[in-house]
Amino acid sequence: MIHSHRIRAAFLVIPVAATWSAAAIAATPTFSLEAAAINGQPLPGGNAASVTAAPGDVITARIYVRDFSPNSERLRAYQAEMDVAGFSTGSAGIIQPVDFEAAKAEQLENKDNAFIDDQDPMYVHHGLRTIPLTDTRNAPGYRWLTVLLDPTTAPVHPQDGTKFYCGTVRLQVSADAAGTFTLRFVEDPQVTGLLNEENRQIAPIDYEPLTVAVGEGVAHPRVALIDPPDGAIDARAIGVNGDRGWTRLVFDAVSGTSDIPAGEFALADGTDTTPKPGDVRVAGTRITVRLDQAIAVGRWTHITFRPTGQSFRIGRLVGDVTGDGQANRADLFALLDAMSASAPPPLYRTDINADGLLDAADINALIDLVAPGSKQPAEARRIR
Question: Do both 129 and 167 map to the same domain?
């Protein structure tokens, strides 16, 4: 089943006693590719073999296998490879793994977008000693495979249609995509197939593709935090004008922007006084969220957009010019560089005394914070 004899020889299996009648009608072993989420938001009805999506969406798809013991075989190994021909089966554009072209061009592994979660409780070899591999560098359409180290532990399937997890892929719908795409595996048991404990093919095998209909009218919410940007740290002290820091969040929404209540945004900073979202205003693709108070000094504030599960974070640490989560002498050098730069960093990183200017007064304020003998305790110079 696999591309090399060495891999084939290594394939192993898991033992579990058969609990069904030998006379029962055996189902055909089947691989399926199913959508689980779009833009990080789980599909309301659960996994699906057919979904609708919009240009630019990211689909999280999961690979499953079921009924792999038609003759009481024990599953020692599996391999599944995506068929690149399916990436361009729509009327325009493509659907393919996120960063697929870049990873292929540079011969890089793409483990963030194609992987096996061997901790998944429905993983077909869960709890067993395996070699789980995801090949995103050599296989044309990405390949997933697992080999058991001890064939005597290979599992047997009760032929009841239960689906066992084999891998995950994140698929990007291109901005110009249109029509209906059929994403499938290479339908060859030597490429997408199963091996029993004796390293023999479990056959025949069925394959079920994922169908994606792409349309402009589809709205799966996706947002990007742009002001302040995701990961930003406010280095300013409480301002002379009473400014207490960030009390407003601005998102850029790709789709699904209308009628978003404040409850769709959740904030947490590890305290009992986390800011709460108040007024939410939508203007075109911009979503502005007003907070009832400024974010806490010395802490990360985590923001979650509930419809998609997207998460962002912003922080506040006085004197952290570099944005590395610490206020120290490195920030003093960074501030000196900023003062002579033709394009200095934003004021939230450099206006230490919060008077609206980047000048020598900020150098003096930072020296008071980070110089030896500073009155600022060490624990106050690190973000939590």
Answer: yes
